[in-house]
Amino acid sequence: MDSQKPIVAIVGRPNVGKSTLFNRIIGWNKTIVENIPGVTRDRVYENTKWKEKEFILVDTGGLCFNEDDQDYSLIKEQIDVAIGEADLVVMLFDGKDGVLPQDSEIVRYLRKTEKKVVYVVNKIDHGNIKQVLSTYEFYGTGTDDFMAISALHNKNIYELVEQVASCIETYKQPEEQEESEETRIAVIGKPNVGKSTLVNRILGEHRLITSSTPGTTRDSVDSVYEKNGKKYVFIDTAGIRRKSKINALVEKHSVFRAIRSIERAHIVLMMIDGQTGPTHHDSRLTELVKNRNRALIILLNKWDLAPEDVADPKEVKKIIKEELSGVGYAPVLTISALTGRRIDKIFDAVERVDNNFRKKISTGKLNRFLGELTKRYPPPVYRRKEIKLFYISQPFAAPPTFTIFTNSAKGIPENYKRFLENQLRECGDFEGVPLKLLFRDREGKEV
Questions:
Q1: Are the C-beta atoms of 118 and 90 separated by less than 8 Å?
Q2: What are phi and psi of 13, to 5 degrees?
Q3: Which of 122, 158, 282, 324 could form a disulfide with 17 if both were Cys (CB 3.0 to 4.6 A apart)?
Q4: CA-based angle 283:286:288, to the nearest 5?
Q5: pLDDT of 55-110, one tens digit each?
Q6: Nearest CA among 422, 357, 428, 364 for reference residue 393
Q7: Dihedral angle over CA of 26, 268, 365, 392, nearest 10
Q8: Pairwise CA distance, residues 284 & 259, whole Å
């Protein structure tokens, strides 16, 4: 079963320095991948790395147990989600304020979760012996051990992250995993779009589940399905199937769940409500799929409920591709998970896209393509210099990755790169698949 990045959540009462510590850690190693969209300021995620250890760091809102606060329930619920997902919790105290009743409450609360916890006293001036000695009062909260740091002044941060790294498992990049014959499929979409209905129909109706094994997250289950002798793994289907109260928080949380599923998949089935059409949330999810270089199939669900006057599939597919910019290469299927309409077409599309995802084109064919193309449509001149594309090869598949050698990698404009990608897609028939184009100049510099 695939590994996933461990999650480390920073928690504590308000104003103890959680965000300062968060920013200090992600800025220390300078290998931030990206911000994860779709969450509020009270829960922020960053992919980060410390030496060989990769993990996701989570900044949370201030945890308090004052139920008179109108924001209490929302903040508390978000922190519950962060702690529930976490493999490790960093509990932060304020060394200047000393131990407050809220600190002891949070320690008891964390103890009930049975999570691994690293206790940290922040805002400690290590040159002030009296202040350092005062940290011993934090043993009164029932903690066995803690570290004294200053996130603001970068004191003992190295030692803290070393301890955090020693407490989490090493994450293995999906690209480094051995390629298996099974095809991993993630089903994503906004809440209540029909994901559970689709997965249950596929797995239940055909009754071909060969096993149901625990996944790597606390509450996920990968379901294995066989069709025509080929094995497919539906990722995170336990979480998809479970009924939840649909509200703003769940929708934001679904973005992060989708990312964890996307990173483990070969192919993503993106479900869109056929009654309402694509939304901003759908657009963000498809952007995540593209940025992670996964194959994509768009499923327009609830098509049986679509109004007849707008039910022209060709026109609807055109509108969807316009709304979800950047993924025009993805096939669009109109289905009804509830009635089973056109469900059989999904696996036809999966088979095509999976073959395209793993496809490799010979170097000879690629260079004939490049030579003919540049004769008809040469690259524009850059700083009075003629741009030449010498050679192209495909070093990798899944996703298809191409390296083009040129006399000036930085001189090729973005619109010409997009043109090359579109022509290459048409030449190789890469329906449903993102393409990676790398440009190298004579000195080996890559763009």
A1: yes
A2: -70, 170
A3: 122
A4: 110
A5: 988 888 787 766 555 555 666 777 777 788 889 999 999 998 999 988 998 999 89
A6: 364
A7: -10
A8: 11
pLDDT for 176 equals: 40
Omega of the bond prior to 399 within 30 degrees of 0, cis? yes
Nearest to 302 by CA among 280, 258, 279, 333: 333
Q: Are 148 and 129 in contact (CB under 8 A)?
A: no
- pLDDT 10s digits, 343-386: 999 999 999 999 999 999 999 999 999 999 999 999 999 988 89
What Cα–Cα distance (Å) separates residue 379 from each residue in 281, 392, 412, 439, 445? 37, 15, 7, 13, 19
Distances (CA, A) of 73 to 64, 80, 111, 163, 334: 10, 10, 20, 32, 39
Contacts of 409 (CB under 8 A, 6+ apart): 439, 440, 441, 445, 446, 447
DSSP state of 201: I
Q: Is the pTM of this model over 0.70?
A: no
Structure tokens at 342: 């056109």
Copy the structure tokens of residue 174. 């999906």
| 94, two tokens | 């304020």
The amino acid that residue 29 corresponds to is N
- Contact criterion met (CB below 8 Å) for 18 and 41: no
Report the range out of 71-75, 192-196, 286-290, 443-447 with the highest average pLDDT.
286-290
Sign of the alpha-carbon torsion through 351, 341, 288, 170: negative
